[in-house]
Amino acid sequence: MAFHDISREKLLITGVSGYVGFKTLLISLSRGYAIRALVRNDSHVTDLQNRSAALSAALKSGQLEVAVVPDFLNQEAIYTALQGVTVLIHIASPLAVQTEKYQEEIIQPAISMVTTFLEAAARVSTVKRVVVTSSMVTLIPFEWNANPDSERLYNPTDLNTTLSKPPTSPMHAYWTSKALARLATRNFIETHSPDFDYVNILAGVIIGRDDRLIPSPTNKPSTADLLVGTRASVLAPLLGKEASAPFPYVDVPVHVADVAKAHVDAVDSTRVPGNSEFILASDATRDGVVWERDARALARKYFPSEVESGVFPMEGSLETIRWRVDTSETERVFGWKHVGFEETMRGLVEQYLEIRRLEKGE
Ligand SMILES: NC(=O)c1ccc[n+]([C@@H]2O[C@H](COP(=O)([O-])OP(=O)(O)OC[C@H]3O[C@@H](n4cnc5c(N)ncnc54)[C@H](OP(=O)(O)O)[C@@H]3O)[C@@H](O)[C@H]2O)c1
Fold first, then answer.
1. Which H or E element spans position 131?
2. Which residues form the 3-beta hydroxysteroid dehydrogenase/isomerase domain (predicted)?
């Protein structure tokens, strides 16, 4: 039987300053992998150390190196960073940032970045696998949100086919960027037949505790740091009206720790086959999550005094779109079950309250 020898692997991870990448870095280190993390800015090196004693210790011991490459489209710099690397975990990608320059700031960087990394990796003979953070948004057209097919069961072979339509919002542009990046990865492997294979991780709405925000003498997070992106939207139903999410969310949560774990599990080719794609989403086998109803029920169950006292006024809105997805292949191949919404959301709410208490000096 094939054996995965961690001591022979060297991982290059991008996106480590972000929510998913940070957790992926922590899990890879705890498994014993030697890691080179790629960041864009010198300040990220200090920041990583300030946010986690484990990262600080790994930097000191040499298990972790951090390489600074200001431009992730610089193929020569990426090629240099890939020297000696066996598996690339490419997580970095622009999210739906507030901009009107959809092509320049969201779509093009996502596609060009993944292409640059794949081209550079193809020149490095040690690279055997590339794990890419894709998204479930790549399965369906953005327009699906306005007219969802909530009966059909979607699976990892589904792919958005309306990629030529000009985006009308940052979220629409993000949708397009992820689908085109996913296609670029698949096409690159097909056209160039490099020495490595790929695993695309198609994640749902990633939520749960943000490990970058664990308070310590060197890390003093605020609730504003937590109320960003998906975390802000899913906490909205507990908060005031002003916290309301600007658009509905599909009902496919997934714990950030499961997403991170899947990236690290996918490093092992004896466990996860190559040239494969996996949907990551919890609660797929029950009736899905209804964000407002379920988040508020959870608050009443686990945080009744905060509901009673008005810490949670329960006035913000987050509409839900039902989306049926098949995660059975993911759970079969990876050999674990997704953490359920209740546990994921409870951890996030606890973290919000912990940080709020510190902020208020309570
Ligand atoms: N959050 C979700 O619900 C969700 C769901 C499905 C898939 N995903 C995917 O998961 C990945 C990570 O998302 P996240 O939630 O962790 O986002 P995040 O916290 O905003 O982190 C994004 C990371 O990507 C890097 N990045 C962004 N644009 C870049 C560029 N042009 N060049 C180089 N680096 C760039 C950022 O680096 P800097 O710090 O230098 O900006 C940061 O490290 C993305 O691929 C995203 O599409 C997220």
1. strand 129-135
2. 13-181
